[in-house]
Design a protein that fits this description.
Chain lengths: ~325, ~375
């Protein structure tokens, strides 16, 4: 009844202004039940503001948003019963023990007394904190804190979970463990709404929304974004004297963009057919070319291409 | 309102206070500290005024006069000197507050029935004590004068004349007119103002600062549940402190306790709720611990000390200041405390201040709830 159309989050022309600053600028999207929906974007692009609006913690300036079928402005309290939220900053009580934090949040979410023991055990299991129930939470390392925070946020088995940069400042192994937990919840039908700026994490998402300065600039599966982002082809150029090479190719007709990528160059070309001409030009300048071939863009390529294009459009819009 | 959520918040708050040694220290030491400093320190009695004398005559009569000073509990005759300069330096150094100079013709003038002038030099830097010292000195001289006169009349076989009117004074409630009986019960009001506002003003602000509030308000808990849940443990701590203050007052300072414990408990409970409500409102409104504690100190401690009638009677305050005393919760509680301790007044006669405190408490909790939004902006 609540999610008759299968969308757990629906956002339409959402705007949030803080004074003159527009943090969220007319964004619209839907998330489907049970998917891992990634919100990708640089710091200050409006990811956290959007999440906070969806959790009923901030009032939108205009536009409409529903979570689990409830309007964020009209019934934030009904939304709070149906969501779990993990804020960017670690926000459990450092001076309480692991068990005390879990019991406290079980109380806040109104977990029935009969289920209390089982739910807390489940959360301890999930966080890998069995046997450390009486440790002060403040003494745990980052990965454990973050898994415990997730455990607290889902004690009431919410159908939708909002995670605001859950893995910032956590070691790679803990990040991987954390994403396994997210995957498992998603398999159980929980909708996961997660913000991140890690490209490898973005790859785990079913769908991604790309945010830049308050605007939603692209939305799709990671593959769709990678393929749709580059107009033309992406080529990898492996050669010596990178500095001279980049100068040369940038002036070359048919090369739209060139950037250093590791110890090679990534070229964006309108047509891969220009490759022999580029190779010839480089060799004429006695730069030896080890290889020049078309590659599939990574998510990072896509991200850079989409945001630069968006920034450039924004600049031309405002200058005109 | 959900009782389980409320209890969960209270329990969490209890754990946090018990683990925060600073809060615990405030709760345990504040009654002891304020009770001893204020109980001993704020003494409005002027007794044992240190006195120097310069007896220029050295006769039987002049010695008699000095004896009268010595035997009075208001004066301590510290030293007798033989020149003016010694008197002046004693006053300058603060070794005495009052210096008496008996003239060289003291007994001769007394004998002849001529007016006698005894000079009194007073350290006027504390005007209140100085006035009292002069007043007491005049009293000693007057009684000496009367004795001399009676003696003279008896010797001349004149009929004895009794004064027509005299006052037979009897003091009620504070029979010995000791200021400690007036001060000490009121200290409880100060202790609770400090403990109540200081501790609670931090509790909400701390959660905003540490980021735990953002997590808390994302749950279904209501703002009233948060406020009342947090209030309960601090209420218990405040009542503990009240009991400690009352115990110290009665058993250590020997202040009489004539009223009922129930009246004391009811009055204290309502006052405490008002004070805790004020602390919450400050905490909710500022969201920062430093600001909250400073505003708490200024709005709770200072007015409770200065404007409540604790030390300075309200009806003797400048007229422009008096209306502001109605805004100070301690004002009503001090009336209750003094009545319960010294007069033995029961609950029924304290309806006025009790109702005022109930209104105060309800208003504070209402304001705290109204200022507390479950949102970040």
């Amino acid at each position: 009844m609540m999610r008759s159309n299968g969308n757990s989050v629906e956002v339409e022309n959402l705007v949030k202004r803080f004074g003159d600053f527009t943090a969220v600028d007319r964004i619209s999207f839907q998330t489907r039940t049970g998917e891992v929906f990634g919100f990708l974007g640089p710091n200050g692009s409006g990811k956290s503001t959007t999440i906070r609006i969806l959790c009923g913690l901030l009032h939108p300036t205009s536009g409409r948003a529903t979570v689990a079928g409830y309007d964020v402005v009209q019934s934030p309290e009904l939304i709070r019963r149906n969501i779990g939220y993990m804020s960017q900053k670690f926000s459990l009580y450092a001076d309480l023990t692991v068990f005390e934090n879990l019991r406290f949040y079980a109380g806040m979410y109104g977990v029935p007394a009969a289920d209390l023991r089982g739910r807390i055990d489940g959360a301890l299991e999930m966080a890998g904190l069995r046997g450390r129930e009486s440790s002060p939470t403040g003494t745990l390392s980052g990965g454990w804190k973050q898994r415990l925070a997730l455990g607290c946020a889902v004690l009431h088995r919410p159908p939708i979970v909002f995670l605001d940069e859950p893995t910032s400042g956590v070691d790679p192994l803990s990040r991987r463990l954390f994403w396994e937990l997210i995957q498992r919840m998603s398999d159980d039908g929980v909708t996961i709404f997660v913000t991140t700026h890690y490209m490898d994490e973005a790859e785990y998402c079913n769908r991604l929304a790309l945010m830049n300065s308050g605007k939603l600039i692209a939305l799709g599966t990671p593959t769709e974004l990678k393929l749709g982002s580059i107009q033309g082809s992406l080529m990898l150029l492996d050669c010596d004297r990178l500095g001279d090479a980049i100068e040369l190719v940038r002036r070359f007709d048919g090369v739209r963009d060139a950037a250093v990528f590791g110890n090679a160059l990534h070229l964006v070309v309108s047509d891969a057919g220009v490759a022999p001409a580029i190779r010839a030009a480089l060799e004429a300048d006695s730069i030896s070319v080890a290889s020049l071939h078309v590659i599939r863009p990574s998510l990072e390529d896509a991200f850079v291409a989409l945001t630069t294009r968006h920034d450039a459009n924004g600049a031309s819009e405002s200058s005109s | 309102m959900n009782l389980r959520r409320l209890l969960a918040i209270s329990r969490k708050e209890v754990f946090q206070v018990l683990r925060d040694s600073r809060s615990l220290l405030i709760v345990l030491l504040m009654p002891l500290m304020l009770m001893t400093t204020l109980g001993y320190g704020v003494n409005l009695d002027t007794k044992h005024i240190r006195m120097f004398a310069f007896d220029r005559e050295g006769s039987q009569a002049s010695q008699d006069l000095l004896k009268r000073f010595e035997s009075s509990e208001y004066f301590d005759l510290v030293d007798t000197v033989t020149d003016y300069r010694a008197l002046a330096t004693a006053l300058d150094d603060g070794r005495c507050q009052l210096a008496i100079v008996i003239p060289y013709d003291f007994s001769a003038r007394l004998h002849d029935g001529r007016p006698v002038y005894v000079q009194a030099l007073v350290d006027g830097s504390d005007n209140n004590s100085a006035e009292l010292a002069i007043g007491y000195a005049q009293g000693v001289l007057a009684s000496y004068g009367a004795a001399v006169q009676a003696d003279y009349l008896r010797k001349s076989h004149a009929p004895t004349v009794n004064p027509v009117l005299s006052v037979e004074g009897r003091t009620w409630f504070n029979e010995d007119l000791e200021s400690k009986n007036f001060i000490v019960p009121g200290v409880a009001a100060i202790v609770m103002a400090v403990v109540g506002v200081l501790l609670t003003s931090l509790t909400v602000a701390r959660e905003w600062e540490r980021g735990t509030m953002e997590q808390l308000i994302s749950t279904p808990v209501s703002s009233l549940e948060i406020i009342i849940g947090k209030l309960v443990p601090y209420f218990a701590l405040g009542m503990f402190d009240t009991a400690a203050c009352a115990a110290i007052a009665v058993w250590w300072f020997q202040v009489p306790f004539r009223g009922s414990l129930i009246a004391l408990a009811v009055g204290s409970g309502i006052y405490l709720t008002a004070i805790l409500g004020l602390g919450f409102w400050i905490s909710v409104a500022t969201k920062h611990q430093l600001a909250a504690s400073q505003i708490g100190l200024v709005t709770a401690f200072l007015p409770s000390f200065l404007l409540s009638g604790f030390t300075f009677p309200i009806d003797q305050m400048p007229l422009g200041v008096q209306p502001f005393t109605y805004l100070v919760a301690a004002r009503y509680y001090i009336v209750i405390l003094k009545s319960v301790f010294l007069r033995g007044t029961g609950l029924s006669l304290l309806a006025g201040p009790l109702i005022a405190l109930v209104i105060y408490a309800v208003l504070m909790v209402f304001l705290a709830k109204r200022s507390f939004h479950k949102s970040l902006a």
